[in-house]
Design a protein that fits this description.
heterodimer; A: 204 residues; Arc Repressor Mutant, subunit A; 2 domains; 64% helix; B: 147 residues; mainly alpha; two-stranded antiparallel sheet; 2 strands; rod-shaped
Chain lengths: 204, 147
């Protein structure tokens, strides 16, 4: 199965800066069972969920199934979600997604696919810098895959979703100090794994 | 470690039909949940009905008077003292009662006129007069006509 992959670095939802009024209206529509509101809610947040799931578990067809599970759980829990609460919709969805990831790992039903099959090979006319970026991306993904799952989740939430330690601790249901320790260890291991490749790309 | 280098790690994007498919799944899930939410109430109502019916049955059976002894005496063979043609025809099949020959209508008339009381007793004035047919009998059968 071929999985379409495009560059979406942070996995942020499109139009995420549009404000919370959209979320509030959409969530009200979702609560009342409005099909178009549910669809627009999914469209708005699907990239966020896909980004977290694919980086935590690896790319593959299982990501789509798990993303659907995330939205099903979210829509079931919508009546209990407070729109004006402290947690934003994105953080709330990431919390649900992290639970889904934990369940999927526990069931051990995640098909692993080789990276070469998923990632598009650089086109012949690709500039050298872009080629290097793609290769670095592969190396980073491979290095992250070697991290322990709990460290990888913290790393993904911190580096790609911009969550602070308090939010990470809340999303993963762990203590703040634990989150800090896991992130520190993940960064240290990646620094070691990517030492040779990272020269000239930035400070590892 | 800066964030910029990590941008090269590409994330998987959702297919075009994902939102449509997931929205349909959400609506289906809600319909199922609504239906399953009704299930326990139906079971509870059924259990309540059974309970009420049981209590009602128990109450009525407790308040019922003790059964009469008539039912047992009916099954025993009885000696017929006043057989009538209709009674003979309604006899239950399989009883141990000996079948008696059908008495002559004249005998019936005589028996009904003189019951258990002694012959000297005066018949009651309120006794009902039974019209009897006029019959001509030979050795085999009787022919009865209107009175």
């Amino acid at each position: 199965m071929t999985v379409a992959v495009t560059i979406n670095p942070l996995g942020a939802p499109p139009g995420a800066t549009a404000g919370s009024s959209f979320d509030a209206e959409t969530l009200d529509g979702c609560r009342s069972g409005d099909a178009s509101a549910i669809r627009s809610f999914i469209v708005r947040h699907q990239d966020l969920v896909f980004a977290f799931l694919s980086r935590s578990l690896g790319r593959g067809p299982h990501v789509e199934d798990l993303a659907q599970e995330v939205f099903l759980r979210a829509c079931r829990a919508l009546p209990r979600f407070e729109t004006n609460g402290t947690a934003g919709v994105s953080t709330w969805l990431l919390t649900i997604a992290s639970r889904v990831v934990i369940d999927a790992r526990r069931k051990r039903q995640i098909p692993t696919m080789p990276l070469e099959r998923d990632l598009p090979a650089p086109a012949p006319g690709t500039p050298e810098t872009e080629r290097q970026r793609l290769e670095l991306g592969r190396a980073l993904e491979a290095a992250a895959a070697s991290l322990p799952s709990e460290q990888r989740d913290v790393f993904v939430l911190a580096e790609f979703h911009g969550l602070d330690m308090k939010e990470i601790a809340k999303v993963l249901g762990i203590r703040e100090n634990t989150a800090k320790t896991r992130l520190f260890r993940a960064r240290a291991q990646l620094r070691v794994l990517l030492r040779g490749l990272w020269d000239g790309q930035g400070e590892p | 470690m800066t964030r910029a280098p990590f941008e090269v790690w590409q994330a998987q994007v959702a297919p075009d039909v994902f939102a449509e498919r997931t929205a349909a799944a959400v609506l289906r899930d809600r319909a199922l949940a609504r239906r399953s939410r009704r299930g326990p109430w139906v079971l509870l109502a059924a259990a309540a009905c059974i309970l009420v019916a049981g209590v009602a049955w128990g109450w009525t059976s407790l308040r019922k008077p003790p059964p009469r002894e008539m039912s047992t005496s009916r099954l025993e063979p009885v000696e017929r003292t006043d057989p009538t043609p209709s009674a003979t025809s309604q006899r239950p099949v399989g009883t141990s009662e000996v079948l008696l020959p059908t008495p002559h209508p004249a005998q019936v008339h005589a028996k009904s006129k003189a019951p258990a009381s002694p012959p000297s007793a005066v018949p009651e004035p309120s006794a009902r007069k039974v019209p009897l047919p006029q019959c001509t009998c030979n050795a085999f059968a009787c022919e009865c006509g209107p009175e």
